[in-house]
Write a structure and sequence with these properties.
Structural class: alpha+beta
Strand order of the largest sheet: 1-2-3-4-11-5-10-9-8-7-6
CATH superfamily of the largest domain: Gcn5-related N-acetyltransferase (GNAT)
Number of helices: 7
Strand content: 25-35%
Helix content: 25-40%
CATH architecture of the largest domain: 3-Layer(aba) Sandwich
């Protein structure tokens, strides 16, 4: 069994996840972080509990609902095992849907010299137009989604790098990583269906880890993955992500629509 992470390390992993996929706007309300990105992805359009806070959570939940309504967005709450709270029972009482998409945040240490694999294009700071176009193709993004995805990446305020494994002169597998507090958070892992089972996603992620260690002094890495996604979990565990830092899931009201 992999060793448990210290509470301080878990907090740094949580911060790395938030800073590695930033929202476009946000406010902090008594230890809760309310994130807004015009409805693009739940991670950037939901309430994240950083601390329990001191105010009554039922009153805070109602206030959050009003704030999201004023933004034209459905209220969505992200509940994490890193911050235990009675909010789940409160949302039950307010008629929210059951938990959806339980997500594991997996962690690994970065030690020794990590080799950077060949055949991977790496861009620091901001993604290339070719990387963005390939991601739009692989995720079947429409014009609006492409624009919002670009704006979120432009909002990154921590060091970041974008990797693309090349096969047959095409960008066949993608990933990007952003570093906070010497932890690199891996995001946007995608592989062209025509090039699966060739280890290309592994190469892209390995390039991100080597870059983070070499250029940013990273000593750890994390990646969020839906717990039910067996192939993705196997991929990350095969890359050494075998420690679970924490889990989270989302709660939304019936009829709130998909984000």
């Amino acid at each position: 069994m992999e060793p448990l992470l210290a509470a301080s390390r878990i907090r740094s992993v949580e911060e790395a996840c938030l800073n590695g996929w930033p929202s476009l706007r946000g406010i902090v309300y008594d230890g809760w972080l309310l994130r807004f990105a015009d409805g693009y992805t739940r991670r950037t359009n939901s309430v994240h509990l950083l601390t329990q806070g001191s105010l009554d959570p039922a009153e805070k939940a109602a206030a959050c609902e009003a704030i999201y309504a004023a933004q034209g967005l459905p209220p969505i709450f992200c509940l994490s095992s890193a911050t235990p709270s009675p909010l789940g029972a409160i949302l039950d009482g307010r008629g929210y849907e059951p938990p959806e998409d339980e997500t594991r945040v997996l962690y690994r240490d970065l030690s020794g010299d990590l080799p950077r694999p060949g055949g991977v294009e790496l861009t620091e700071g901001r993604p290339s137009e070719a990387w963005l176009a390939a991601l739009a193709r692989l995720q079947d993004q429409g014009d609006r989604a492409q624009g919002l995805h670009r704006r979120i990446l432009e909002a990154l305020c921590v060091p970041a790098a974008f990797a693309a494994a090349v096969a047959d002169a095409r960008l066949a597998a993608l990933a990007f990583g952003a570093v906070h507090d010497r932890i690199v958070c891996v995001n946007s892992v995608a592989t062209d269906p025509a090039f699966r089972r060739r280890g290309l996603a592994r190469q892209a992620i390995a390039a991100i880890l080597a870059w983070a260690q070499e250029r940013c002094g990273a000593t750890g890495a994390c990646v969020p993955v839906v717990a039910a996604n067996g192939p993705a979990v196997a991929l990350y565990e095969g890359l050494g992500f075998r420690t679970e830092a924490f889990r989270y899931h989302y709660r939304r009201r019936p009829g709130a629509g998909e984000i």
